[in-house]
Amino acid sequence: MKKIFKTAAAVSVAAAVACSAGCGGNTKWSFKSGDNELTNGNWIFETYIGTMNAVSKISEGNSEKNIQNIDFEKEEIEGSPAKDWIYMQAKIDCKRQLTLDNLMKKYGATVDQSEADSMKQMYVNYFYSGSKELYEKLGVSEDSFVTAYVLPNLKSSALFNKLYGKGGEKAVSDEEMNKYFTENYVTYYTLTYNLKTSNDSGESMDISDEQKDIAETNFRKYVKMLNEQGKTTQEVSDQYKVDFSVETAPATNETTLASDMEDEDLKKEVEAAEVKKAKTVTIHDTLYLIYKGDINEKVADLKYPEDIKEDDTTSISRLSVARNMKTEEYEDFLDKEIDKLDYTRNDDCIAKYSVMRTVGIIKEEEKKNASK
Q1: Helices first, then strands: H and E counts in the chain
Q2: Is a pLDDT exceeding 90 seen at residue 218?
Q3: Rounded Cα distance, 7 and 16, in Å
Q4: Cα separation of 59 and 5, whole Å?
Q5: What is the 8-class DSSP label of residue 290?
Q6: In sequence order, what DSSP letters do the residues of 92-151 get, joined into one string?
Q7: Is the CB of residue 43 less than 8 Å from the CB of residue 34?
Q8: For residue 340, what is the enclosing H or E element?
Q9: Stretch (H or E) spanning 362
Q10: Spatial contact of 270 and 261, defined as CB atoms under 8 Å apart
């Protein structure tokens, strides 16, 4: 789970903030808004994330820089001392969490409990447990870790689904979605045959000329089945299993955002292909059959998740398309809500668990681990 921060105006830790402060020495909580309250561990964790992000940013410009030799009070990031930049990022993320909680309540959005439990367990096992000693020295409990690191993304996703889902306040119209979908998505079928094999020593080598001729002959047959005989891609896959005596054909049926295709060479071939006109090409020592479908025909498959039956393998979630369309708009909406948040900051907590305290503990732990 990657935490992404937007650039904030450089403000020192001591700068005045638009909130009431002063909390009588109680340092168990850090920020609150209405009935929602973040623990001190939550704040500490955000300063930890901010510190690691700061080290990454500073070392980008100087590979010799690391947490041990960076002066966080003098080194600058985006015009501010690193410690102040870390403070601002941590505060923004705390405000984001409180904003999400408020908006979840306002719009009636809920996180799927089974998904939350699964994500909690996975991240605690792999991330919290792996750095448990450091987290405990910092003062980050397992609960604070989950609240700060695991739940925000789940809550943000649930809020997005509520806003842009069926009947949502920001639901995308059919006209807008269909236009975006047909202009940005591709639908295609591929069938492949590997032109490389391994010898007894495990070294890669070309298949024999005879095997290659058989593969190319069969692939020309599949092109003819699709282009001239009116056969379906499923029938082609079935014929492949017979021709090559395999139980499963290496075929894929994809409807995806064109920009999400990771293989640039395959992407170029798919985009250049004629609609409903099969062709064969060789990409990365692999023989491909490519058959591009008509994206306009897939519009009818766009449905809201609640309207897709369990055994439906052809429908496409409108929400997944909406997410590609509207993520930037949604983040802008969230940023504005964060800016408007009415919150209270616990100055006693922030002073006790300062950025430089976090930096010091991380440095100490790294030194100790390096000497082992």
Answers
A1: 13, 13
A2: yes
A3: 19
A4: 17
A5: E
A6: HHHHHHHHHHHHHHHHT----HHHHHHHHHHHIIIIIGGGHHHHHHHT--HHHHIIIIIH
A7: no
A8: helix 318-340
A9: helix 355-370
A10: yes
Instruction: List alpha helices for the chain, DSSP H.
Output: 40-61, 82-107, 113-123, 132-138, 142-145, 151-164, 174-184, 209-227, 233-244, 264-272, 318-340, 347-352, 355-370
* Cα–Cα dist 105/107, whole Å: 6
Query: Could you give the CA distance from residue 46 to residue 87 in angstroms, rounded to a whole number?
Result: 9
Distance between CA 357 and CA 363 in Å, rounded? Answer: 10
For helices 40-61 and 82-107, the axis angle rounded to 10 degrees is: 130
**Alpha carbon distances (Å) from 89 to 12, 79, 354:** 12, 14, 13
Tokens of 23: 């909390």
Residue 108: pLDDT band with limits 50, 70, 90: very high
Residue 251 sits at the vertex; the CA angle it makes with 274 and 321, to the nearest 5 degrees, is 65
* pLDDT score at 198: 87
Identify the three-state secondary structure at position 252.
strand
CB 40 within 8 A of CB 111: no
Amino acid (1-letter code) at residue 257: L
DSSP annotation of 249 reads -
Residue owning tokens 């600058």: 76
Cα–Cα nearest to 298, from 315, 282, 313: 315
Q: With the CA atoms of 115, 117, 119 and 121 taken in that order, what torsion angle do they form, in degrees rounded to the nearest 10?
A: -150
237: helix, coil or strand?
A: helix
Give the pTM: 0.85
Can you tell me the distance from the alpha carbon of 60 to that of 49, in angstroms, rounded to the nearest whole number? Answer: 17
**Cα Rg for the chain, rounded, in angstroms?**
27
Q: How confident is the model at residue 202 (pLDDT cuts 50, 70, 90)?
A: confident
Give CB contacts under 8 A, 24+ apart, made by 121-125. Answer: 123/1, 123/149, 123/150
366 and 79 in contact (C-beta within 8 Å)?
no
